[in-house]
Design brief:
By secondary structure, the protein is α+β, with helices and mostly antiparallel strands. The two termini are about 40 Å apart. The chain is flat. A hairpin with a 2-residue loop joins strand 17 and strand 18. Strands 11, 12, 14, 16, 17, 18, 20, 22 and 24 form a 9-stranded mixed beta sheet that branches. The chain contains 26 helices and 39 strands.
């Protein structure tokens, strides 16, 4: 940075680290502190650290760099004690010597001429540092920011002479440190980049430097020095290594903390923002501090790299420094990925301050010959009607839609500024798409004259025409200049002609910008880029959609909260297509969860059939019309001959409710046998037989007396496992006989025919055959709940009961049969159906309506025509194989359950004890969502990924899913 002396003050460049081995460390521990133990060397950048194992436990011996004084070390001891006492955070407390001090001074190598070294013996803080390249979850990132604030609050009034020190990690000294250390960076190109970035960052800091508060800070509150004693959640609860303690700018602390988050898997400024928000919530930052924060992050990155090169030059064998250089380089690269103005805008927003906004001056029209009514504004958003039916996947969609608008009479077309365009998004992309264009594009039916909207200097660029004036740059890409380069123009003077197409953007004249960015960054880029729409329409349109957080708040106010939502920070889903879901930012997610849309989201045949039927007739089933007859015939034809009578309802809950009422009418009995861990619905009877603790923690204790339960026939983790799983049937049969002997024979048994709610686990072979026979022997009937597993999802079987080689008396079905339309059915024998007349007659206003029946018929047609059952078998087998291969590499995977495209991936912490990995499963789902995959947990233990995608899932989709899952299991969640 070349503004300071070539010989920096002592302390800015540390001497080489101490030289001592494990035996010498053991001697230091005994001589200085009277403690005997076995020493093991640990890594350190500039000190020497040893783990000391003693009879009473583990301790940490820290031998400080010769550049660190005893007084400074005493200050570090005081700071650790203050953090532990005031903030309640675990910290390495210093062992005191007989004289009350915490520092032992000795000569290096035991030689009289050896360097003077200082050592302390610290309590060992149990846990695992958050270091490494693994992913940090948003909750953990927030926890890191909150903990950093607590440390700073605790240290704020610490007073100790050892706090006043000059050392290279004090960011106030960054220019001097870089002047001294950059020469050690041998790569000239890297050295130049470090210098340019640091000079720019320092210039930003200097603008607010006089107003930055100073206080004692930890100075190295990074992932290396944050410790978690929580193996599953990895929430930080301890702080170690106070070696960089110093009095410095308060804002340097969160800057240093945030810098250490950048190198983690998927890291970047956006992933670090939750830490800043959490810090500011606990310890608010001033506007000046927020302005300085990201420039300090950049300076920290530059100092890290320069220091590492210096250490390696003076201590070539320092493997710790060599290893760290890789992630320190990643910190710098990610810190400088955005212009400082854009990064600072993000920081301002995260810390509760208003972002800067670049606005245009008063301006005239760019194209005087066009009135706003002449211009068709195009909609390429995720909810655009023009993009229905998968049109958005066409690479030429934007061009074709614009051409159609011109052909319909528009004189020009205009895109929306910064609109997240679905046309620029693609399926299976693990990253957020850069689909928000920071400008507008026009097409013209005829050439148009362009004039200067404000005074300036016109110039010619390789891409078209540029106008500079008032600190702004107007770029007209695709225009042909009608002025000479460097011409001064007034507002209204001609500058060019546009013929065919024109790309238009307005930016700060001294800025480097991008054409497209991620939607989450648009507001921050507005510090450098203005919306030019007013130059064409005379006004700037208002936002059309509410932000996701605002929509969630409105949902919580108006929509009963007991109706929960997926994910901690749910995306706003506005479109579905086949096996994909699309949010308001036009991000495309792979839907691995949604068994409701069995044939795919927004299937055009269903949409067409419903629209046509709604325009024709929609009434109730007491009228006689063809659709209800045709659908009932088609449905019963898919079942054994004896199941010939169909009832149509609106949901799975209604179907189960009706099935249980049919059983009561047929047997004149209330008692029902059901399996534990099952979910059958939320209506009265359906809820009574639902035993899933995940859906209702009190399910078993609140069942009415007529509900009798038997063990969940879970062959993986239940009472009877593996080859012994056949005993479940014996137990259930015995319970049926016991109830009959006690005078309460069951009127019905209800069971999922493939154990879906427990995680896609098949019932043991012969289970239902044995149970059904026992129930029939005592005059009861059997109910198959096919709501989740029926309709070809299992691949090999259309119905789950086929896998068990049984024929139930009553079948309840829903979900898949309506593909998202509310449609359910109960199919039974004529005899049982007729017995229901003892309860009166049955009627459902919307059940079996013409529209519902047309939906049902179309779904059956698509299942057949697109061979979706066969696809479930083929793709499901491929997916199951790939998941089992993952299990060979990742011990968290305990088992792969299921068949076809009804699979369950069970996570366990221990394959012997089968301890459920509940917290991990939830976090994995959150992380997969960040990578573009929608999936959720199931089972009473919530440790199984329920994999129930639309049946149109492809091999490519499954491979992408497995790759994302592999990434999560490898890098963390």
């Amino acid at each position: 940075m070349n503004t300071h002396s070539a010989l920096p003050p002592a302390g800015l460049v540390q001497p080489t680290p101490p030289t001592l081995d494990a035996a010498e460390a053991e001697a230091v521990a005994f001589d200085g502190f009277g403690v005997r133990g076995v020493a093991h060397a640990l890594g350190s950048h500039q000190d020497r650290n040893f783990l000391l194992r003693t009879e009473s436990g583990r301790l940490l011996l820290k031998v400080a760099n010769p550049g660190t004084t005893a007084e400074e070390l005493e200050a570090q001891s005081a700071a650790a004690a203050r953090v532990a006492e005031v903030a309640g955070i675990r910290a390495p407390l210093s062992r005191r010597r007989q004289d009350g001090s915490t520092v032992h001074t000795f000569r290096e190598g035991g030689r009289p001429d050896g360097r003077t070294l200082n050592a302390r013996l610290l309590e060992y803080v149990d846990g695992t540092p958050l270091a490494g390249a693994g992913h940090l979850s948003r909750p953990n990132t927030r926890a890191i920011g909150s903990l950093a604030a607590q440390v700073d609050i605790a240290l704020a009034d610490l007073d100790h002479p050892g706090l006043e020190r000059v050392h290279q990690w004090d960011l106030r000294r960054a220019p001097q440190v870089l002047d001294a250390l950059l020469p050690f960076v041998g790569d000239a190109a890297l050295r130049g980049r470090l210098l340019v970035a640091a000079e720019s960052a320092w210039a930003h800091v200097q603008r607010v430097e006089p107003r930055l508060p100073v206080q004692p800070i930890h100075g190295d509150l990074t992932d290396d020095n944050l410790v978690s004693d929580d193996p599953a959640g990895r929430r930080p609860d301890g702080v170690i290594d106070f070696g960089d303690l110093n009095r410095s700018w308060r804002v340097a602390e969160p800057a240093i903390t945030v810098s250490s988050l950048l190198h983690h898997a998927g890291g970047g400024i956006q992933t670090a923002l939750p830490a800043l928000a959490a810090y500011a919530a606990a310890s608010p930052l001033s506007h000046d501090e927020a302005e300085a924060l990201w420039p300090l992050v950049v300076l920290r990155g530059a100092v890290l790299i320069a220091s590492a090169h210096h250490v390696l030059a003076t201590d070539p064998g320092n493997g710790y420094a060599a290893e760290n250089l890789t992630h320190e380089t990643a910190i710098f690269e990610r810190a400088t990925a955005l212009p400082l103005e854009v990064a600072t805008a993000l920081v301002l927003d995260a810390t509760g301050h208003e972002r800067p906004l670049l606005v245009m001056p008063e301006a005239g029209p760019l194209i005087p010959a066009l009135a706003p009514a002449d211009i068709a504004v195009l909609d390429f958003s995720a909810s655009s009607e023009a993009l229905e039916g998968g049109v958005w996947l066409d690479a030429e969609a934007e061009t074709r839609i614009a051409a159609e608008a011109l052909a319909s009479g528009a004189r020009a077309t205009l895109t929306r500024f910064a609109e997240p365009r679905l046309t620029r998004s693609r399926p299976l992309d693990p990253a957020e798409p850069e689909n928000a264009v920071l400008g507008v594009e026009l097409t013209f039916a005829a050439p148009q004259r362009l004039v200067a909207p404000w005074p300036g200097v016109a110039d010619v660029s390789p891409d078209g025409v540029e106008l500079r004036g008032g600190g702004l740059l107007l770029r007209l890409e695709g225009a042909e200049a009608v002025v000479d380069p460097g011409t001064a123009v007034e507002a209204g003077d001609p500058v060019g002609v546009a013929d065919g197409a024109l790309a238009l953007r307005v930016q700060r004249a001294d800025a480097t910008t991008v054409w497209a960015t991620r939607p989450a960054l648009v507001a921050a880029w507005r510090a450098l880029v203005a919306d030019p729409t007013a130059l064409l329409l005379g006004r700037t349109p208002s936002p059309t959609a509410a932000p996701a957080d605002e929509l969630l708040r409105r949902r919580d106010r108006a929509f009963a909260r007991v109706q929960e939502h997926y994910f901690d920070e749910p995306p706003v889903i506005v479109r579905g297509w086949k096996q994909y879901l699309i949010d308001a930012d036009a991000r495309v997610y792979l839907d691995v969860l949604n068994n409701v849309s069995a044939i795919g989201h927004a299937h055009p045949r269903v949409a067409s059939a419903v629209g046509r039927q709604l325009r024709t007739l929609n009434t109730n089933s007491r009228f006689n019309y063809p659709a209800v007859v045709e659908f009932s015939e088609r449905l019963s034809a898919l079942l054994p001959d004896e199941l010939d009578s169909v009832f149509l309802v609106n949901s799975g809950s209604e179907a189960v409710e009706l099935a249980l009422r049919l059983a009561r009418a047929a047997t004149d009995r209330e008692d029902v046998l059901t399996m534990r861990e099952a979910y059958h619905g939320w209506t009265g009877l359906a809820d009574a037989v639902s035993t899933s603790l995940a859906d209702n923690p009190h399910a078993l204790s609140t069942r009415p007396g007529w509900v009798h339960t038997v063990d969940a026939p879970n062959s993986y983790r239940g009472t009877h496992r593996g080859a012994d799983a056949g005993a479940y049937a014996l137990d259930a049969v015995a319970e049926v006989h016991r109830l009959a002997a006690e005078g309460t024979p069951v009127g019905a048994v209800i069971a999922e025919t493939f154990y879906g709610n427990a995680g896609g686990i098949p019932l043991p072979d012969g289970y239902l055959a044995s149970v059904y026979a026992a129930v029939h022997a005592h005059g009861g009937v059997t109910i198959a709940d096919e709501v989740q597993v029926g309709y070809g999802r299992l691949g090999e079987w259309f119905w789950g009961f086929e896998q068990q080689e049984v024929v139930p008396d009553i079948v309840a079905v829903a979900k898949a049969m309506g593909n998202g339309h509310p449609l359910g059915a109960v199919i039974t024998s004529r005899a049982i159906a007729e017995r229901f007349r003892t309860q009166g007659y049955f009627f459902s206003s919307a059940g079996g309506s013409p529209v519902s029946c047309v939906v049902g018929l179309t779904v059956l047609d698509v299942l057949r025509d697109e061979r979706l059952q066969e696809n479930a078998a083929t793709v499901g087998a491929h997916l199951a194989r790939r998941l089992r291969e993952l299990g060979d590499r990742h011990p968290l995977i305990g088992a792969v359950h299921g068949s076809g495209l009804y699979l369950g991936l069970e996570f366990v912490r221990d394959r012997e004890t089968l301890e459920p990995a509940t917290e991990e499963t939830r976090a994995i789902c959150e992380r997969l969502r960040e990578l573009g995959v929608i999936v959720q947990p199931t089972s009473d233990r919530q440790c199984v990924l329920k994999i129930k995608p639309p049946l149109c899932l492809t091999i490519a989709d499954t491979d992408a899913f497995v790759e994302r899952l592999d990434e999560v299991l490898t890098t963390g969640w």
